[in-house]
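Key idea: predict the complex, not the pieces.
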Amino acid sequence: MTHWEDFYNTHLPPADFEDNRSLLKEFCERHNKLQNRIVLVTSGGTTVPLEHNTVRFVDNFSAGTRGSASAEYFLDHDYAVIFMHRHKSLEPFTRHFTGQQFFDMLDIADTADSQNSTIAIKPDSVDVFAPVLAKYKIARETQMILYVNFTSVVDYMWLLRAACECLAAFEERAVLYLAAAVSDFYIPEDMMPTHKMQSGDGAPTISLQLVPKMLAPLASLWVPHAFVVSFKLETDENLLIVKARDSLNKYKHKLVIANVLQTRKHRVVFVTPTDSYELHLSRDKALQGLEIEEPIVADVVQKHSDFIISAEQRQ
Amino acid sequence: MTHWEDFYNTHLPPADFEDNRSLLKEFCERHNKLQNRIVLVTSGGTTVPLEHNTVRFVDNFSAGTRGSASAEYFLDHDYAVIFMHRHKSLEPFTRHFTGQQFFDMLDIADTADSQNSTIAIKPDSVDVFAPVLAKYKIARETQMILYVNFTSVVDYMWLLRAACECLAAFEERAVLYLAAAVSDFYIPEDMMPTHKMQSGDGAPTISLQLVPKMLAPLASLWVPHAFVVSFKLETDENLLIVKARDSLNKYKHKLVIANVLQTRKHRVVFVTPTDSYELHLSRDKALQGLEIEEPIVADVVQKHSDFIISAEQRQ
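Result:
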């Protein structure tokens, strides 16, 4: 496996990196002055390009549901939120409506002078839409949320480290909520063809290399005082707890939220260094439109509060 | 390479296949009775799952811009449109606005009795939004567009053949406008692992096989009388015309629209069995907000009209 420092030495930052770094710096400095709590929510999958002029890439399955929903609930708990997401994946608030759902909610009416038309949300849709829109507007106006996005696993790695550099100053007040589905594998720069692979050349074989585990420098060096939460997605139930426990032992962070692909919307397992327990969304609550991210975030926030108090007591 | 019939024999249709087939059948029968012209627009990329319980997949780069824009212009030319697109890729009309753009166009106002609120598009956004919304509503109300979607290359193949079975009855009145970026490679069912590949097993090697070229049975067997247009995307300019010409010689269809990844938004090359010429969007026109898909579709429609006339003269 490539060492994490070598990964940054051999892969250039994305073109918009300096812009994003400035945004992160400004956002963090403002909220640190206000002594706010802050959370970095990562969300969506990363790509691994197979060619320099990218036509094909390996992708990880993730619509961004977990991350975008969780970001909303962290805002409810008065956290400043850095929403670091895969370009075009689901975002807080807008995730509730697709493009066609928006269009179908709207009515065009010609005004009396027939010079201008007005477009309004149909009355029967206002009840559903108004609270979501109101929360979105408040989050924007109070500047409690910053959106930054990535596409490839290299973009992700650069943004993650830049965010950590800004978050370090928050010490215990920062939560890292690493819900993005980051590729374990990649193709190193020097092994990538320049042009689109040609089918005339026969069926290709793609050789992947392991991506360094950034959780190691993140938890021990970049934000050593923060409350770090990682996610584990498996398709095999039997591997879940074992792998979560391995991860905690290795990286010494605070919490792994483990879930199985097929049941992830109504069941997760919280694994801490000392404990593990299930968090479940009942069928009734799901039918009422409740989401499992609401109790997940409530639990994380409670653990984070306890963590801050015990850190203060140590001082 | 797998033979195309073997591909269907060894890969099951997707779960929603019969529903989509019914929709296609109803849509085509209605428009065929009306003697309408019809176009199948395919759009967006296909995925190749790497695992049965899909966490990872190989994807083709395509936001669906070409296909979704072209579908709008075919509607302007009074074609019935089957918009067969990658799930979550860009769609006609809604493509002009992202989720946040929608939210930012909206104002909440409390009405006099303060019991109900109304939400309306801000006056300065109405001018841009109204014409798009109006066209969307007309296309829906007149049932001139049918949306069907796919994710994997297997889904795509099943839908493509089902659409062709319904389109055959239109004979020369059907256009196939195959703008989707379909994977050339896939992993056969029996070579796919059931569970998520584990990074502990070391870096994996992915062995891909060639997907059969469906353009062969499509042009010669499924819709032998239709006007078939394929697309060729390359990153290497030098390969463009040669490969387009090869394709026409092999599949005997009517037109290849060839483009280079980096310049595809303002330059394409039309390659017919007898001719090739460039279609170019000037910088001025691009700055006015014009899209190259407008002249592309106008040219295809003109060629299609000529094709229908010459077919009638032969009879």
